[in-house]
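User: I want to check something. If I give you two sequences, will you return the structure for each one separately, not as a complex?

Assistant: Yes, each is folded on its own. Here is the first sequence with its structure:
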Amino acid sequence: MTLMKRLAKWALIPGIAGLAVASFVAIGTRPSDDAAASSHREAPGIAADPQADATDTYAFIAPDSPDKLTLVGNWIPLQEPAGGPNFYPWATDATYAFSIDSDGDAKRDIAYEFEFYTKVIDKSTFLYATGPITSLNDENFNIRQFYNVYRRDGNSSSRKLIASNLAVPPDNIGPKSTPSYETLATQAIYSLQGGGKVFVGQRDDPFFVDLGGIFDLATIRQLPGNAGGGIDNVAGFNTSSIVLQVPISQVTKCKCDPAPMASGARMTANNNPIVGVWTDTYRQRISVLGSEGGQYNFGDRVKVSRLGNPLVNEVVIPLAKKDAFNASSPAGDGQFASFVLNSDLAAKINAVYAGIVTPIPTTGREDLVTVFLTGIPGLNQPPNVVASEQLRINLSIKPASCGSVMRLGVIAGDNCGFPNGRRLGDDVTDVAVRAVACGYGFNLGPCVDSAPNNLLGDGVNQNDKAFTAGFPYVASPVSGFASPHNTSPVPPIAAGIGAGASVFALLAAGSLIFSKVRRRTAEDVA
């Protein structure tokens, strides 16, 4: 009995030791939210509001749907797959939108808007899933989101409801909670009246880039950058996607699917096949926090995020103007033109790689205005264009006419790729860096093409996951259980308990030996 009391007393030590070891292991192996930066968090204001943060916009014609425009908008950046228990819901007090300019005047002609609401089945539990979720109506699917889709034409104050009460699939938690995630995702693909499709839900982030190198003074890990060697710092993170596919005839000025233009034909307003695309996020102007945790929103809608061409707000617009850019519309982009014409990034590349790259002009960069603000003549520049930051795409150029898919798009001779729209696999980082460095592979005044500028890149050439051949095209999200950011081979708490158990065993053995020695000593004395 004395030994049991002694063990009970000393057992506190291995228990505490185990918890201490567990704590240190957990701290040492847990990924830090602050350690990862991203071009997604491009402005001070939106970095504090990830639910509203538009991270990437894509516009392309999919090979399996050549009569439709496919739009992909991603929000809520750098989602650690294991980030429960609430995971990553859409904001119910925001409006997410695709905006389309169908005539090149820098004004929105069409908008598709998405608004969400949440339904909780059992509020007595903290769990997102109370058991395996096998369908979108499964009673184990505890925290559910639904959305409505609206179409707005021009600047009209009214809009048309085109789909309602559509379900968002659960986030990809793991094999016990979401045993067949792709089945759930397939159930969340909806057909729209008039021939369109829509999917809203979590997906793997399709953006690929060496963020660590770019934000460390534009470091290229393995010069000149065209032969790999970069690190994809977005790999293993998820995002929230809205994927919308609509007939081309519903977004063009002619209300038709334009045929390819004959060689030498002149593009006019009546046969313009080019549209500009960007994403917007709106919140109501006034938000009031309640004393018991509630939030109340009032007032008109205010734009808080805007994204067309990738990396423009990130590496072209200066810090003092980034929030203003997010709140603005393309019609007001004249105020930002000087930052495109006079490239700060070009100056940085000249300084960091002096003696390595051919000196890059930093002022008078009309070529960057062409690439990012007007579109390229004869390719994706609409007639009578007003310079503005949009992702422009020529809808008469079909995938079947472009030959092999090239990750560098237009500068590699693939006119179906960036900057004529943007496909999921387009290497926009390499294209943007080469554009700034006058490395197009051809002359685009005032740039004169030269080496090694036409070989620059970040060394990351493709996404970490393959895209799907069919709608919604964006790769399936990484599951929280299988997150590649799990760095400990033994779960931290288990490791701590194991260490504590080892100490306990040693103490127990020592106590037994000590007791036997004391008993034998007592017998010898007697």
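And separately, the second sequence with its own structure:
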Amino acid sequence: MRGSVFRLKPAENESRQSVSKFRAPDLKALFWKMRNLASSFLKKAALPPNETAHAAKAFPKRFFEAAVSFFAAKKRTIFKISALLICIITAFASLPSSDPPARYNDVPEKHWAYPYITYLSEKGFLRGYVGGNFSPDSSVTVAEFIAAACRMTGMDDTKLEKSGYSPEAAIKYANYMNWVKDKDVPSADYSKPITRELAVKIAITAFFPQIAKEASVFLAPKIENKNEIDPVNLKSIRLAYSMGILTGYADGAFKAKENLSRAEAAAMLYRVWSKYYKEPSGLESVTVPILLYHHISNSPGYTTPAKFREDMENLKKAGFSTIFYRDLYEYAANGKELPEKPVIVSFDDGYYSNYEHAYPVLKELGMKAEISVIGCWVGIKDHSGVIPHFGWSEAKEMYRSETVHIEAHSYRMHDYDPNGKVTRHGVLKRQDEDYERYIKAFVSDTKTITSLIEENMDYKPIAYTYPNGYNTPLSEKILESLGYKITLTINEGINTIIKGDTSSLMHLKRIAVDNYKGDVVSLINRRYI
């Protein structure tokens, strides 16, 4: 995920509404639109850090223009004016302070790298030292540079460990992603200063692999000491020059083997960020609730077959249209339009009752659903203590009827014990496991369930449902590297999917409706407010 963006909810389509029909979704739409305007002004990476004040001055005019446009088709009432004022106050309160909090004792405003160090520190990409210093002239270590690159690509290593901090996760993730190998940097040397040559190689490999693969012509200056550069890194260095990531020295030298200072690293990484991160181009979005079911049964604690039918009929009567995860991806990635009031009906685990009770209702009503299966339990029907699961033949039947899609819920990482007796909770790292072994285990398990679905369903899954909802920034990036476009949690809520922003498809929320006795449509509507 390339930085956070504010999510917005579109305004209602009605051109005229009475005061009694002016609903909370209207207010929420305005609020998110104002927040998104703030984001587009003050969070664009292409904007030099020292120009944010200029952008802030321009923001109020655009803010009020948007507000006037939003209310142009509505009746002017005291209630609506009050609502507008509330939204204005709230949106402005969300803007970052003009006085940046990330200040270091040894990086005064007159320091040449001050804007870069401050900007990247505010983003959380760079870290200072205890005591409030940054040490801009000190050499940056290989581990520090890799960790910063990880955070910039969305793998925030600072959020992985509950106590303490170790660069191990960032290093092993960089190894897995082929940014750097131990042959480039022996394990014992990750704490040593990084050379200019290696820093450029990591930056290009991490952020611009496709450009590096396809590029053949470079608008780069003549490099005087080219013989000092490892031939395998020369292409990355030329590309960095042509992209404006490197500036070199006045005499044309690159000084490949010299150590990179922390200030120089900040300048380089800022230029990388300005090329890498792209703010979503538009404000268009769609709000999508995802309902979560498991077992359909008359047994206590579950949704009964009769209640499931009632839920689906009520959704249809209320004008909701069921869609697949792939429809959601096509909207975010390619701008393909969605039906009015889209909703996703999801099932976890792959119980036989989904086939026996839910599938016939969905097929009869012309509705769709997603089922995320646990690979090792597919087809298990007579295992002691385990609720029966449907097999691949039933899965194919449901898919071929254009009613159900099958997605991943891990192969064998669904262990859970409320008493904490299991060694691994969902896809999380075990306490007795280092990051290298953990990454191998998670990748292997994910590749297994992916292959099973490909072999049996003739398509590659794009959505991964986290067992018990457990996830980390590392698991998100690993799944992304394996081709998954959507990840799902058990966090409660409704999602806002932004056209042109596929990052809004990750870490999606759902609404748990197992054994829910009330009206599912009312439950969804309450979540909108």
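Because they were folded independently, the notes below concern the second chain alone. The beta strands are 285-288, 290-293, 321-322, 342-349, 369-373, 404-408, 463-465, 486-492, 495-498, 508-512. The longest strand covers residues 342-349.
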